[in-house]
Amino acid sequence: MSKNHVISYLLIAPAAIYMLLFVGYPLIYNMILSFQNMDLSTLNSGEVLFVGFENYRAIFQEEAFHIALRNTLVYTFVSILFQFIVGFLLALFFANKFKGSDGLRGFVMIAWLIPQTITALLFTFMLGSTEGIINQILLGTGLINESIGFLSNPNIALFSIIAVNVWIGIPFNMLLISTGLSNLPDDVYEAASIEGASNLQQIFYITLPMLKPVLLVVIMLGFIYTFKVFDLVFIMTGGGPINATEVLSTVAYRYSFVNFDFGLGAAAANILFIILFLISLVYLMMTRTEDVK
Amino acid sequence: MKKRKEMIQLIIGIIIVSLYLFPFIWMVLTSFKTQIEIFQTPPTLLPKEWSLAGYQSILNEGVLLYLKNSLIIAGGAALISIFLSVPCAYGLAKSKIKGKSMFLLIFLASQLFPATVLLTPLFLFFNRIGILNTYLAPILATSLGGIPFSVLMLRPFFQSIPKEIEEASTIDGCGSFQTFVKIILPVSFPSIAVCGAISFFFAWGDLIYSITFNRNQSLWPMTAGIYNAIGRFGIQWDNLMAFATLSTLPVILLFILLQKQIIKGLTAGAVK
């Protein structure tokens, strides 16, 4: 091995080892935990036993877990759909280079910057039934007669949180799609205009097909970022009312850090992990093929 | 003609962005209202008189301690992230070692797994090595977002630095370390600053690691402080919105400072 190679390894290794230690090892440890009866008493006594699939069996018998699994999927798909549509429209609008367009686009990023805990609190305030501005506006304009329990009505609460998540996700979608748009060649559009294609036709027959690789990455990343939702639900409803907004990560958190049944928590987290892992494989394969080019 | 079209687009743009950011504007405005005005019907847009009562009462509640903790945790995470990812990205950009793609895969993959999956095993791991209830626990955990992001963003940047510059400096008798410090670091300073800023954002927003690893509330950051305050202040929205505004201010200032580079960096890191 030449001297240069040794130096390269010395440069690269610390970060790689750090990530393996704090991400790789916990992932494996989590998998082992999910087959153990680790809770507060066994943690202290050291009498941890392997219990096979007992934790998984217990989880699948809990109604809250079924609700959480379904909610997480609904949450993810509805969020991505709307973030994507609004993000795409905004990106199209800002693709018209006008004076101040970059600055305005920068402002939109503020929503992405605000810590999710803060956003959750802010919307809890805005969606409140008496003092909340949204109910005030709806009542004031006569659109509704009595205030809506955005977060207290079990049929609505999940969709209220989804709406907040859409708000958070718009800037990131817009930004990535904007970059994709700016990399498209102009001459195709010129040709299409000469041929008499309308704006809408250009979007459906030129923009969307040509953007396909970027759009796939945006949707994949959206899935990965959305599926792990925790802060919003934790602050806005805590999973309630009556489990109506429970998601996988809040369930896993509750098992581990409210009930202190770490084995059960690990099993729930592991299910979250496996779903994310499968999606990530698709994402990794897509980015790998990009990288080779 | 073109001028007029641009003018109309600008006006439409301002309307869209103001509507979109209304929640944020509402947060800041509410933080300056009195509790009475907040509960008034019909609601007011601008505060009738700008009140600092909300800010006053969170100062009395020790908000500055939370602010200090947030700065320590996010600053620590950003520093770790830079110290590990800059050399790593440079090594990955410039060398042709075996297993390079495997290293890249480690970083790509590790950025995909969220706090909620790592939380339980990290808690037990940190318990065993005795760092629960210290700043170190959330610092280590929150740096895990920034490192892979920075490595993946900086590598293509280092690759784009022309070889000739480095070769010239080697001929002038600089070793590779000197070349790195004297030539590479100065030109890449803006990109490194962006990585630091984004790592800082990731860590600044964390709630779950701090409240799980640290039972000791005097180590809690702003986000955890506000979680706590929700219970204490109930519906005293002037206090809560002042808290929220103050929590958001540092990241917005940092963003404004580095806006252009951050936007470039974010897209490079994610699309690549």
Let me know the largest β-sheet of chain B.
none
Structural class of chain A: mainly alpha
Approximately how much beta-strand content do the residues of chain A carry?
Answer: under 5%
CATH top level class name of chain A: Mainly Alpha
Oligomer: heterodimer
SSE blueprint and pairings:
The complex is a heterodimer of chains A (293) and B (272).
Chain A: H1 3-33, H2 40-45, H3 54-60, H4 63-95, H5 101-108, H6 110-113, H7 116-126, H8 133-140, H9 157-182, H10 186-194, H11 199-210, H12 212-227, H13 231-236, H14 248-257, H15 262-292
Chain B: H1 2-20, H2 22-31, H3 35-38, H4 53-60, H5 63-94, H6 100-110, H7 115-128, H8 136-159, H9 163-171, H10 176-204, H11 208-213, H12 222-233, H13 237-271
Helix pairs in contact in B: 2-13, 4-13, 5-8, 5-10, 5-12, 6-8, 8-10, 8-13, 9-10, 10-13, 12-13
Structural description of this entry:
Chain A is an all-alpha fold and 293 residues long. Chain A has a single domain, classed as MetI-like (MetI-like fold), CATH 1.10.3720. Chain A is built from 15 helices and no strands. In chain A, α4 packs across α14. The two termini of chain A are 28 Å apart. In chain A, 41% of the residues are buried. The mean pLDDT of chain A is 89. Chain B has 272 residues and is mainly α. Chain B has one domain: MetI-like fold (Orthogonal Bundle). Chain B is built from 13 helices and no strands. In chain B, α6 crosses α8. Chains A and B meet through α1, α4, α5, α6 and α7 of A and α1, α2, α5, α6 and α7 of B.
